[in-house]
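Notes, Module 5: Reading structure tokens.

Key idea: the token line is not a picture. It is a compressed description, and you learn to read it the same way you learned to read a sequence, by spotting repeated patterns. We will look at two proteins. The first is printed below with its tokens.
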Amino acid sequence: MGTVNVSEIYVEQKEIESHFLARKVKVDFYLPANVEKPEEMSLLLINDGQDMEVMGFKDIFKEFCSGQHKNRPIFCAAIHCGAERKQEYGVAGVPDFAGRGSKASAYSRFILEELLPFISKTYFVHSFKEKVFAGFSLGGLSSLDIVWKNPETFSKAGVFSGSLWWRSVDQTEKNYDDDQHRIMHQEIRNGNYNAGQKFFFQCGNMDETADRNNNGIIDSIEDTLDMIDELVAKGYSREIDIQYIEYADGKHDVETWGRAMPGFLKWAFV
């Protein structure tokens, strides 16, 4: 667990003993150097932090923080997933039809009750200008769920190729209905409008090939567009509160998400 000097960014890896997850959680911390006013820093949490090296996130982050946005310092914590990723990520309290996401509530408690206090105690940053949470695929669903349910803590969610298909009834069942059985869509529909929250979504036309209703739109894009519609119906402005990026050649992979990352950082922190 060492520290690497990357010009104006330090990358430090630590392990946090989690009571809620009953395991050690590896976290990579990306720290801006020489911050004169720590209280002006924003916090970015990222699920699936183990993919950041492949993405080249260090260079993306460094370029953002040392460029024209250097006056908006960001403290980033990239959280590595565990062996039970499909149980820890998901929607808290609502496992899917196959029982996946059974530990999503425990993961949420890890974030709120263990990771955030660890950051405060270890790095002596007791408040941030704002807190943002992003993730990819199932990690994107997880970040959206945690942000949505904790508006007093998080102001923005970043969802890259999010697993917004997460459903309570298998789509092969005769009674399956998009309108009733996509779990996160129901969470938004049955929740409350939280003033000040904003949402970023990214999809690619090559995310997948599945098109369950044969309407010519792949499921990942349709699920995302429907999620945006749910947020708009709840009261969020499509133009002000929501950002959507769709790549014609975008795939369900780290390379595509890395391509979208600079735009997300600019959207979230400028």
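Here is the second protein, with the sequence above and the tokens below, as before.
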Amino acid sequence: MPSLTTYVPGSIMKKSLILFDLDDTLLSNQMSTFLPAYLKALSKALIEYISPDRMVSTLLAATQTLVEKTTPLKTLEETFDQCFYPGIDIPKADLQPIIDQFYIEDFPKLRNLTQPRPEAIRMIETALEMGCDIAIATNPLFPKTATRQRLSWANLDHHRYPFVLVSTYESFHFCKPHPAYYAEILAQLGWQHSHVVMIGNEWEDDISPAETLGIPAYWLTDENQSGTRMRLSASSCGSLTNAVGWIQSRLADPGDPPSYQPIPAIMAVLRSTPAALETLLKRIDTHLWSEIPINNKYSISEAVQSLSHVDQETSLSLQNIPIKSAHPEAPLSANRQKTERNDYPFEENNTLSSFFESRLEILHQLEQLTFDQWREKTRHPIFGEDTLQKITEYIAATDRTVLQDIYLVLNSDILT
């Protein structure tokens, strides 16, 4: 058991974070060519077990489920497995050795469909020299090995470059184009960065959802194309070569950090918190949650309990607002609660399970609100009287503070 010491606030300096898309941003890789070749190769590897047509149709259907996923429960891998393997009537354990072999022997052969981008390598190295943290914000629809291989094809091997995060389907719960995907990146990194920017080539996947959170973005596109689609004044568009100058200008005059105040941003933060906790708390044994001190005031378990308490009080406040939903849906029934509770990770820990339950209830209630209802006033036992949008903004801010504390403790010398 590690020795327990007190975390000292401020022991980690806040830095700027740059999020980079991978395919057709850091690596020339046209998915319209790559994806059919990938599916053909995987179908060939599995042909003794399943017909290519059935394999491809089932895989694409399972992938679409990931794209549409909005619940923070279960990783993308777990969600994919529950759709794909029952769909082909073959247990995962029977196919996993063949799939593992595919990624060792066959997937590397797809490298000739891609090309590294020297200007991207220079941009990464320049950003690191400027003291920035870098996260690879690639759509987490591939397993870790496939993503790491594509990084190596870009001559950006993860062993050489100190990326603070690379999103893959084993550890993420949302994917592009959901703003919750970007919130989950920041949450897994403990909301510790003072300023964040995003660089990518796809408007719908990279630029629009990042700007929804208030993150300035650089859209890799034809320099002759108008940048009037950009919603934030700090955002821009142009070539990969010119992106370096944009990064330097953003660091020289970063402006205010994202406020996460618009309703879609608030909802993204609220969805990302249980997802990030599920990933972060896998690092330690559950019995340590009640023993590791945060700020010498409370434990990890107590921090999570505080989030659950805020949610429960908020749920009571929401009951004061008559629901006239823009999206009518049946109430969260006891059967639904029971089903979702059975899906909770860390079921043996009542603290986290209770928080997941309260957060799902809050998300469900908020999803029913019309635009006008967000602006209605209500009384919250903790935050007092204010509009519902302002109160949920306070909840999202509490989420970020608690996650920051937990992240800093998990990355301190307490666990070493």
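Summary for the second protein:
- The radius of gyration is 22 Å.
- The chain is about 50% helix and 10% strand.
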